[in-house]
Amino acid sequence: MTDAATIQPPRSQWADVWSQFRSHKGAMLGLFVLSLLVAFVFIGPLIWRVDPTYVNPDAAKMIMSRNKPPTLDHPLGTDQLGRDMLARMMSGGRVSLAVGTVAMVLSMVIGSFVGLMAGFYRRLDGPLMRLTDMFLALPLLPLLLVLMMLFRDALASSLGPEAGTFLLIVMAIGVTSWMHAARIVRGQVLAIKEREFVLAARSIGVPSRRIILRHIMPNVISSVMVAATLGIAGAIITESVLSFLGLGFPPDFPTWGRLLYDGVEYMQLYPSRVVFPGLAISLTVLSVNYIGDGLRDALDPRIRGR
Amino acid sequence: MLDAATPGTDKPRKLVEITDLKMHFPIRSGLLRRHTGDIKAVDGVTFDIYEGETLGLVGESGCGKSTCGRAILRLYEVTGGSVVIEGRDIAALGPEELRKTRPTMQMVFQDPQASLNPRMTVADIIGEPLNEHTTLSSKEKLARIYELMDQVGLNRAFANRYPHEFSGGQRQRIGIARALALNPKFIVCDEPIAALDVSIQAQVVNLLEDLQDKLGLTYLFISHDLSMVRHIADRVAVMYLGRIVELSPRDDLYEDPLHPYAKALLSAVPEPDPAHEAVRQRIILQGDVPSPANPPKGCNFCTRCPEVQPLCHQQDPDLIEVRPGRYVACHFVKPEKPTAGSTGGIEAKERNQQGERR
C-alpha cells in the first residue's frame, strides 16, 4: 500500500498538543503575560534591589516620603509608610502566585479524586457526595478562621512563621474549595462511564484504575481545567481576605491581596495604590484563563488541527 | 461453513456452552430505593456455539439480544447460569482470572463512534489490548498494530489519526482490529452493522467473513437485520422477551420456521422480487411486547401468538430438539413429523409457498 518510508512512527501526543497550543493566539498571549509576571516577581528583585520593608527611620523623612505618586526613585510610588511599592509588588507577587497555584492544584487534585471516585464507583457515590454537600454547606470564612486560630502557632513554631503560614493557608484554601470541581467531575464521569468505549475497555480486560486514568480522566480534564483557572483567582482573593482579617500572613508581609486591601482606604486620594495590585491580580487571572482555554482546546483532538 | 450447517453428521467441538443464562436488572423504587422487581432482560437462555461457526441471534428491539451478548462476555454480572468457554465458566471466575481469560473472547460494538475513545489515536486504541495482556516491546507492538491494520484494510498511515477523522465503516474496522489484537477465538458482534450505510454494511460483513476464514474465528452475530443474518450465519437463534424460541440451522429456519414467533418475524423480511412481494403473506402480530419486568405466565409469547391454546397460558414450554439440530420452545411443535393440531396446517401452507418460489 504505502511504502514504509512514508509512514511516520506514532508521534508523541504532547508534540501535537504543543503545536495546537501555539496556534491559539489568546493562549500564547496569556502564556507570555504570565511569564512576564513570573519573571517580574522572581527575577525582578534581583534587579530592583530595594528592601520592601524598609521604612525610613527618620520620622520627618518618612512622613515626607509617604504616599508618593510614581517617580523615578519609586516607579510605582510609595505606601502610607513610605515603603517602595515596586519592591512590595515583587515580593508580594511571589507569595500570591505561589499560594494561588499550590492551593488551586491541591483543590483540583482533591476535587477530581473525589469526583472520579464518586462517579465511577456507585457504592462511594452517596457517601462522597454527601461529604461534598457538607463541605459546601459549611460557612467557609468562620471555618478558615478557626483553622487558622487552631493551627497557626503550632505550624509556625515547627516550620517557621512564613513557611508555616504558607502551608496552613494553602491547605485551608485547598480543603475548602474542591467541592465545585468534585461536582463537575462526578457529573462528567457519570456520563462518560456509560459510553461504549469504557465497556470496550472492560471487554479487553483493562482494570478499573486504568479505565479511570486512561479513558475517563482525559475526557473530564477540560472541565477541570476551566474550574482550575477560576480557582487561582479565588485562591489569591481568599488569601488576601485572610490576611486582611489578620489571620493570614503577618501585616507587614506583603501579598497582592494585602496591598490591595491596604490601598482601599486611600483609593480616592491615591488610586495608584489600588490600581497596580489589582492589575497584577487581574492579569494573572486573565492570562491563566486564556492558557486554560488554549490547553483545553489543545487537549481535545476533535478541535486540534482546526 | 456448510459442515457446521449440517450438525448431527460430524459435530464440531463446542466452543461456548451457555446454560440457563439469566440477566436480571433490579428495579428500585420508592424513597428507600427498595428492590421491588426485576427486568428479566435475559431469562434462562441455553445454547451452544460450535467452533468456527457463526451463530446469528435475532429478535426485535428490546428482546435482550445485546444484553445476552454482553452477559456472555461478562460485561455484566450475570444473575444466574453458566457460560463455559473452553472449559472455563466465565460467569463464575474471579476478577484476575477473568482478566486473563479476556483475550479468548472479544467484542465488536454496535456504534463505532461511541466505542472508540475520542482522545486516543488509532495506534493507541488498537494497541491497548496488547498493553494489557502482552509484554511486547514498543517496536514489536507497532509491528503488530500495523499487521492488524493491514488485516482489516486500514491504511498504515492512519495510525496517528483520531477516530473522529474516519468514516463509520473505517471506525468499525478499527473496532474490529482492536477485537482481533489478542488472537481471540470467539467474538461477539453486537449489531456491528446497524449503524452503517448499506454499502458499508456489505464491506464490513465481508471483512468479518474473510477474517473468519483466515483466522478460524467463531462469531455470535447479534442483529435485527434478518437478510444479513441469512447471509452470514450458519445457525440462527430467535429471541423473544429474554428467551430463545427457536434455534435452527439457517436454511431450515428461513425455509420453514417452526415457532409461531419465528414465522411472524421471518414473514416480515421483504422480498426483492416484486411479483413475490405482492403475494407475500405477512403474519401481523397483535398487541405489544409485554414488559420484561412482568412477563406473562406460561409461554412468554402467549399474549400475541396467533396459535395460542389454553395450555400456553399455564405452562412454560422448554426448548427441545424437535428435528435433528432444530430446537423450538413451543408446546405445539412436537418432535418428529410435523403434526399436532392447528400448527400442522399453517406449516404445510408455509412450505407450499416456499415450494412455489423455487
How would you describe this structure to a colleague?
The complex is a heterodimer of chains A (306) and B (358). Chain A starts with 12 loop residues before the first helix and ends in a 7-residue tail after the last helix. In chain A, helix 5 (85-120) runs antiparallel to helix 11 and helix 11 (208-244) runs antiparallel to helix 13 (272-299). Chain A is built from 13 helices and no strands. Chain A has helices at 13-22, 25-42, 44-47, 59-64, 85-120, 122-137, 140-159, 161-175, 179-193, 196-204, 208-244, 256-264, 272-299. Chain A has 306 residues and is mainly α. In chain A, 73% of the residues lie in helices and 0% in strands. Chain A has a single domain (21-38, 85-299), classed as MetI-like (MetI-like fold, Orthogonal Bundle). With 358 residues, chain B is an alpha/beta fold. Chain B has a single domain (2-357), classed as 3-Layer(aba) Sandwich (Rossmann fold), CATH 3.40.50.300. Chain B has helices at 2-5, 65-72, 95-101, 122-133, 138-151, 168-180, 198-215, 226-232, 250-255, 260-266, 274-279, 341-357; strands spanning 14-29, 34-50, 54-58, 80-85, 88-89, 105-108, 186-190, 218-222, 235-240, 243-249, 320-323, 326-328. In chain B, the strands form 2 sheets. An 8-stranded mixed sheet of chain B has the order 6-7-8-3-9-10-12-11, with helices on both faces. The relative contact order of chain B is 0.13. Chains A and B meet through helix 10 and helix 11 of A and helix 3, helix 4 and helix 5 of B.
